[in-house]
């Protein structure tokens, strides 16, 4: 915030100016999941953190465009949010997942996270 003050002989006036900067999204690898090996039937949580201005939105897709199985009653083509939680993972869930960060400022960025099932 930049603050400028104007004074006259009659009264004091304050004029405040705000600056905002646009920053493209950047995925923070240190706070995001890396490749995972999970036991069949276990739950898995993948996390993706991104910075930028405006704050980026995060969505998840499978690299092969197949559905993401969240639990036994919910499968989706895309999941929105920093965290992707999948219950009772099976070998069918094995593969590469994409974390995609966007905020309207190019470029949109992504990170691939591979999930292997034992």
UniProtKB/TrEMBL annotation:
A GO term from the CC aspect: plasma membrane
Name of a matching Pfam family: Ig_3
Keywords noted in UniProt: Cell membrane, Disulfide bond, Glycoprotein, Immunoglobulin domain, Membrane, Repeat, Signal
InterPro entries xrefs: Ig-like_dom, Ig-like_dom_sf, Ig-like_fold, Ig_sub, Ig_sub2, Neural/epithelial_adhesion
Subcellular location: Cell membrane
The Ig-like domain, residue ranges: 25-116
Entry coiled-coil feature ranges: none
PANTHER family found in the cross-reference section: CTX-RELATED TYPE I TRANSMEMBRANE PROTEIN, DPR-INTERACTING PROTEIN EPSILON-RELATED
Protein name: Lachesin-like isoform X5
UniProt source species: Vespula maculifrons
């Amino acid at each position: 915030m930049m603050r400028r003050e104007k004074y006259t002989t009659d009264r004091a006036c304050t004029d405040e100016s705000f600056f905002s900067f646009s920053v493209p999204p950047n995925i923070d690898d240190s706070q995001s999941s890396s490749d995972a090996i999970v036991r069949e039937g276990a739950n898995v949580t993948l996390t993706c953190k991104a910075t930028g201005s405006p704050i980026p939105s995060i969505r998840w897709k499978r690299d092969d465009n197949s559905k993401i199985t969240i639990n036994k009653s919910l499968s989706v083509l895309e999941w929105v949010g920093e965290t992707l939680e999948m219950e009772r993972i099976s070998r069918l869930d094995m593969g590469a997942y994409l974390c995609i960060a966007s905020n309207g400022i190019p470029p949109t960025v992504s990170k691939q996270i591979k999930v292997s099932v034992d």
